Amino acid sequence: MALLIMSHHLYLLGYKDDWRGISCWIWVDYFFMLTGYFSIRHFAAVQEKPVKCAGYEAVKYTVHKFKKLVPYIAIAVFVQYLMIAVSYMKQYNLRGILDAFSNMPYEILLLSSSGIVKPEVAPIWYLSAMFLALPLLVYMLLRFEDLWYILAWLVPVLYYGRMGVNTIRDWPNDLVRAFSCMALGTFVFILTSKVKELKFSVLQRVLLTVVEIGLFGLCILITVANKPYMKWPYMNLLPLLFVVHATIMLSGCSYSAKAKGVFCQFLGEISFPMFLFQWGIGTFTAAKITAVNGIRLCIYYLGTILASVMVMVLKKIISRQRREEGLFVK
């Protein structure tokens, strides 16, 4: 899915409004939805423990979820601002450098979606909106459990009914979009909980696997084939298709649930740094290679993948060294 979102950002490389993949921004909604699903699943697993302060638990969960992402965020933001600083240095504009770097802390702290600054790393709006909306979502999950069975589906319905499927990132739509899509993810969890209670034959599981794969392919086809001037009504079907696909996939009723190997885990881990690093790689490629051609495209995709793998490996090495040092101290 990270590759699909990258194809939406090809305008960085000079592509105009008619390239395939321009509508792949919708997959951000799917990521939001998965976040909502895993958030409610986390608290459902520990529901035996009484929650003394819902607000505290909401903030604690959010901070814990995002703190492991800080190294990736810091690298992506710092590199982007460094490229901005270089452009100002060529103009001998010290004031421009200072003004630009004054906004950097807000991006690293994921506060840009509050409206205080416009992010230089454009994809970071997604993380910022999630960071600001997630505590409220978790609080309402814990505080109003009965009411949430209604809000889980009503909030997304009202949001998409009013705004439609859209890519508006301006305040406050970015926050409302994040909250609504994460709420949709909690609704998926409610559905999967019911589906898990059912028993399926081998044939039914095979059919569900085919449906799951087919739905995923259909979603990709719609987003890749759609162009703004076409005004396809099929884009409005995607939230519904996402819900059905995620329900089948996450409920374990299909055979895809058994495909949880090392490679699948690797794809899940690499998607986040790819999502962040693509912007810096794209900005650098556009600045250094002027012609719109296949070379730019290869550098954009392969450079993003390579940078993501390198940072992941470095992070794992540092984590392993810290664990070994901790064991040695003991």
Radius of gyration: 21 Å
Coarse morphology = globular
**End-to-end gap:** 42 Å
- What structural class is derived from the secondary structure elements? mainly alpha
Helix content: over 70%
The fraction of residues in strands falls at: under 5%
Number of domains: 1
Series of secondary-structure elements, N-terminal to C-terminal:
HHHHHHHHHHHHH
The total of helices stands at 13
Number of E-state strands: 0
Mean pLDDT across all amino acids: 87
Low-confidence stretches: none
What's the story with the biggest beta sheet?
A: none
Question: Can you summarize this structure?
Answer:
The chain has 330 residues and is an all-alpha fold. 72% of the residues lie in helices and 0% in strands.
What is the strand and helix layout of this fold?
Layout: H1 2-8, H2 27-45, H3 54-67, H4 70-90, H5 94-101, H6 104-108, H7 124-143, H8 145-163, H9 173-195, H10 202-225, H11 238-251, H12 262-288, H13 294-329
